[in-house]
Write a structure and sequence with these properties.
The chain is mostly helical and 134 residues long. Helix content is 73%, strand content 0%. The chain has helices at 5-27, 35-38, 40-58, 71-99, 106-109, 111-129. Helix 3 (40-58) packs antiparallel against helix 4 (71-99) and helix 4 packs antiparallel against helix 6 (111-129). It is globular, with a radius of gyration of 18 Å. It holds the Pfam family Tmemb_185A. This is TMM60 protein. The chain crosses the membrane at residues 36-58, 78-100, 106-129.
Length: 134
């Protein structure tokens, strides 16, 4: 199952719009919803991305696949998986903090986000500086 670029963009905009509408309603105190409920569009979108990523990674496990082909591609997919899990950890910790389920400091809540940003900067620097241009 492949999605076209237009479908991916439309799906991204739809889930972002739903999240922002729910967030504005919560912040304006028009809706007394739980913070975990506000983040449902984000988690649905992330679940779709994770399933697509895992299916692509599992396709490499089929018989007859040469592991030397596309090892860089697999490293990128592993980084994407780690990034998605870090984002999920950040969202869960943030919701728990906002809902009052935990008393951890806000600096600890943001640790997965900071690790994600540092990893993104490292990947960007690697892609700019170290990858040979054809």
């Amino acid at each position: 199952m492949r999605m076209s670029l237009a479908q991916r963009v439309l799906l991204t905009w739809l889930f972002t719009l739903l999240f922002l509408i729910m967030l504005v309603l919560k912040l304006d105190e028009k809706a007394p919803w739980n913070w975990f409920l506000i983040f449902i569009p984000i988690w649905i979108f992330d679940t779709i991305l994770l399933v697509m990523l895992i299916v692509k990674m599992a396709g490499r496990c089929k018989s007859g696949f040469d592991p030397r082909n596309g090892s860089q591609n697999m490293k990128k997919k592993v980084w994407y998986l780690i990034a998605m899990l870090l984002k999920l950890a950040f969202c869960l910790a943030l919701c728990a903090k906002l809902q009052g389920f935990t008393t951890m400091k806000l600096a600890y809540v943001f640790i997965p986000f900071w690790v994600l940003l540092i990893g993104g900067l490292v990947e960007l620097g690697y892609n700019i500086l170290c990858v040979q241009r054809d």
